């Protein structure tokens, strides 16, 4: 996922849509994606936070909708054990059954916070 802007980045830890841990620790990583034009024909949609050590994901099945959804909010929050220079990024996976479409809106966000 490509994020358009930054609100703040105190140590320049976020660049090229990738968060890089500055020190060893436990990091609270969270994302919310505003996904528009969700086709109910998708097999599933996954929002993922991919770290150097592990992939974390949340999944929905749009086939349960009565019709295509104009808007879906996908969120994921994790506590990740990261070493200095480990990275994290956000990905959106859509299993495509036929003609699939979806748009990630610029109101989407990601944050990373050193907890301990």
Overall helicity: under 10%
* Count of extended strands: 9
Order of helices and strands: EEEEEEEEE
Shape: elongated
Uncertain segments: none
Strand order of the largest sheet: 1-2-7-4-5
**Biggest sheet descriptor:** 5 strands, antiparallel
What's the number of helices? 0
Mind telling me the C-alpha Rg? 15 Å
Distance between the termini: 27 Å
Strand content is: over 45%
Secondary-structure content class: mainly beta
If you average the pLDDT, what whole number results? 87
Helix/strand layout:
Blueprint: E1 14-15, E2 18-20, E3 25-38, E4 45-51, E5 55-60, E6 69-82, E7 87-94, E8 103-104, E9 109-114
Antiparallel strand pairs: 1-2, 2-7, 3-6, 3-8, 3-9, 4-5, 4-7
Q: What characteristics describe this protein?
A:
about 120 residues, mainly beta, 5-stranded antiparallel sheet, 4-stranded antiparallel sheet
Give an account of the 3D structure:
This protein is mostly beta strands. It has strands at 14-15, 18-20, 25-38, 45-51, 55-60, 69-82, 87-94, 103-104, 109-114. The strands form two sheets. A five-stranded antiparallel β-sheet has the order 1-2-7-4-5, with no helix packed on it. Strands 3, 6, 8 and 9 form a four-stranded antiparallel β-sheet that branches. The protein is elongated and about 45 Å long. It starts with 13 loop residues before the first strand and ends with a strand. The relative contact order is 0.37.
């Amino acid at each position: 996922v490509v994020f358009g802007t930054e609100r703040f980045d105190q140590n320049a830890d976020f660049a090229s849509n990738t968060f890089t841990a500055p020190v060893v620790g436990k990091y609270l990583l969270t994302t919310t994606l505003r996904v528009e034009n969700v086709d109910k024909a998708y097999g599933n949609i996954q929002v993922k936070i991919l770290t150097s050590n592990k992939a974390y994901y949340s999944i929905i099945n749009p086939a349960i909708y009565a019709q295509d959804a104009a808007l879906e909010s996908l969120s994921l929050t994790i506590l990740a054990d990261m070493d200095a220079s480990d990275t994290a990024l956000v990905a959106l996976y859509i299993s495509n059954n036929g003609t699939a479409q979806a748009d990630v809106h610029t109101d989407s966000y990601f944050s990373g916070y050193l907890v301990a």
